[in-house]
Amino acid sequence: MRYDTNDYSVPVAYGHQDVWIRGYVDEVVIGCRGEVIARHPRCYDREDMIFDPVHYLPLIERKINALDQAAPLAEWDLPEEFQTLRRLMEGRMLKMGRREYVQVLRLLETFEMDDLHAAVKKALKLGAVGFDAVKHLVLCQVDKRPPRLDLDVYPYLPRANVETTRAASYMALMSEAAE
């Protein structure tokens, strides 16, 4: 969207649609019909491009090989854990891992960066590297509830064998403690 010689990004879903724009001293607000679809800091330079990387993620998800060359994402300063997550996802799932990484980034369409960052850190700590795990963890972060991950979805993770405790074993421990 062009306003006052500068181009401002809008979500790709609103491409080729009539939009309205309002320029204020400190920001530019863009809307479609009655809904605000984008907000950007106002730029007073000339012929500049102001991107919100989240606007381009649906397009990148469809054209996954453009992930590294996409200009809107080039200067996106994500926390270090996001790069670690990407490396692990691509290492385990190759091209599908790259697509899942973009799906993780698309969670920014709904959730705040702080919540997603906390979920990514927790996923790395748990070794549950995948879109479903990160989504579950960010939902738990927002709802302030403990996570419950189904590890059957992650066949590459080591399995723990936990047996049911028998009453006889407990009684044996009790008799040893009494001695």
List the helices and strands and how they pair.
Blueprint: E1 2-3, E2 6-8, E3 20-23, E4 27-32, E5 35-41, E6 49-50, H1 57-62, H2 71-74, H3 80-106, H4 113-126, H5 131-143, H6 167-178
Parallel strand pairs: 2-6
Antiparallel strand pairs: 1-2, 3-4, 4-5
Describe this structure in words.
The chain is of the alpha+beta class. The protein folds into two domains: 2-50, no CATH class; 56-153, no CATH class. Helices cover 42% and strands 13% of the residues. The strands form two sheets. It has a three-stranded mixed sheet with strand order 1-2-6, with no helix packed on it. The longest helix is centred in the middle third of the chain and has 27 residues, at 80-106. The radius of gyration is 23 Å and the shape is elongated.
Offer a concise description of the structure:
With 179 residues, this protein is of the alpha+beta class.
The arrangement of helices and strands along the chain is: EEEEEEHHHHHH
What would the average pLDDT be, to the nearest integer? 86
Low-confidence stretches: none
* End-to-end gap: 81 Å
Give me some keywords for this one.
179 residues, 2 domains, 6 helices, alpha+beta, single chain, three-stranded mixed beta sheet
